[in-house]
Amino acid sequence: MIPIRDSQPSYSKPVAVLTIIIVNTLVFLYQISLSRYESNFLVGQFGFVPDHFSAVSLITSMFMHGGWMHIIGNMLFLWVFGDNIEDILGKPLFVVFYLACGIIAALTQYAIDPDSTIPMIGASGAIAGVMGAYMVKFPHARVVTLVFFFFITTIELPAVFVLAMWFVLQFFSGVGSVVSYQASRGGTAFFAHIGGFVAGMVLIKLLKTRPRYQRRADLSW
Which residues in the chain come in under a pLDDT of 50? Predict the structure, then answer.
């Protein structure tokens, strides 16, 4: 299932979300302009490598991607769900929230496999946090989703269903990666997704939302 848009209106311009998307895109375009050797060196330097722990790379790794599908998928999810979280937190706090989720996501994967020498890159963990926050704050919103059966079509589903299904898939994939030695040594960092998602659910409850959102939420009841 690929989300295309949601029904939850945003009452402010998603400046922070757009800025993050632009930065990610520019970094990726720079990556693909390099030779294979230079690109691998860049990923090794600024990706998060658990075996060579670096606090700086916890952040820099969030702005690098491994291919077109990787960055397009991540930026699409951020665009669909991020504007509403930015709307209720405000721009500065959203950026702090986003980075915190990304850091916790990477640390979760580190806790599972601290000896890994494979660089972790991508915004998936931070965006998983945004998705977790969205599920907490807007569970009844509707998400237009692209689905693949014997043909391609779109259906509208409750946000809580789409996001819960995504989380369940990450969880079982993560468990499978632990069971399978080969999967646990490379590929998708599923536990980073899980850690980011849970972090988003918790942090959005701890952080103070903007007063105008609280008034809207009260009126909705």
Answer: 178-179, 181-184, 219-221
CB 63 within 8 A of CB 56: no
Per-residue pLDDT at 210? 79
pLDDT at residue number 216: 64
Tell me the Ramachandran region of residue 122: left when phi exceeds 0, alpha when psi lies from -120 to 50, beta otherwise: left
Q: What is the pTM of this model?
A: 0.89
Cβ 187 vs Cβ 118: under 8 Å = no
Q: What is the CATH number of the domain that holds 16?
A: 1.20.1540.10
Rounded to the nearest 10°, the torsion over CA 76, 147, 155, 137 is -40
Strand order, beta sheet including 2-6: 2-6, 142-148, 152-158
Q: How far apart are CA 33 and CA 161, in angstroms?
A: 39
CA distances from 100 to 58, 104, 111, 129, 205 (A): 10, 6, 16, 9, 14
Tens of pLDDT along 126-142? 999 999 999 999 999 99
How many CA atoms, within 13 angstroms, populate the side-chain half-sphere of residue 99?
13
- Domain coverage including residue 201: 2-216
